[in-house]
Specification:
This protein is an alpha/beta fold and about 170 residues long. The chain has five helices and eight strands; from the N terminus they run αβαββααβαββββ. The radius of gyration is 17 Å and the shape is globular.
Length: about 170
């Protein structure tokens, strides 16, 4: 009879998460969202990482960094002309937008506006919604992850056997 250690089994069969974020970047993201939203308005960011199939976040561009007026109305409104600044950042850093994230005052369900106005309207793009304006504590199982299918259609991403939807890598404080 042969026994395989659990770590060997996991390496062979566990699939990469839909999206992975180092704990330090996750902490920076949550702190930035909270500071910008001040628990009274939505805030958000684009998450950047190396191009490719594995979505590994390595950097953050907050919406108000490319459009200083993006958060002024209480909901997120980005002037399309400001997206050129995001693409310039991606070219300069050789990174790609791997996801976007924004906060909601209540739960993490997509609003009709979220469904009808994707930040990146390309099939496969991942959008994250963090409830309660990202107030502490943020529970990973309360976060909404959605993959854009095109034509204003989305799939909700959930963790499945041997595949997490969202993985925060490293030590969280």
């Amino acid at each position: 009879m042969t026994f395989w250690p659990l770590t060997s089994i996991c390496r062979l069969f566990v699939r990469q998460p839909e999206l992975s974020i180092p704990a330090s970047v996750w902490s920076e993201l949550l702190n930035g969202l909270r500071a910008r939203g001040r628990n009274v308005r939505e805030s958000g960011a684009f998450l950047l990482g190396p191009p490719g199939d594995h979505r590994q976040v390595s950097s953050i561009v907050f919406y108000d960094q490319i459009d200083p007026n993006a958060l002024d109305t209480g909901i997120i409104v980005i002037d399309g002309a400001c997206m050129a600044d995001l693409w310039a950042i991606c070219r300069r850093t050789r990174l790609a937008v791997v996801a976007d994230v924004h906060t909601h005052p209540g739960g993490a369900a997509q609003s009709e506006s979220d469904r009808r106005h994707p930040m990146i309207a390309e099939p496969g793009h991942i959008a994250i919604i963090i409830p309660n304006f990202a107030a502490e504590p943020v529970q990973l199982n309360a976060i909404g992850l959605y993959r854009y299918r095109g034509k204003f259609s989305w799939d909700r991403l959930t963790s499945r056997f041997l595949r997490p939807a969202l993985k925060i890598e490293g030590n969280r404080r």
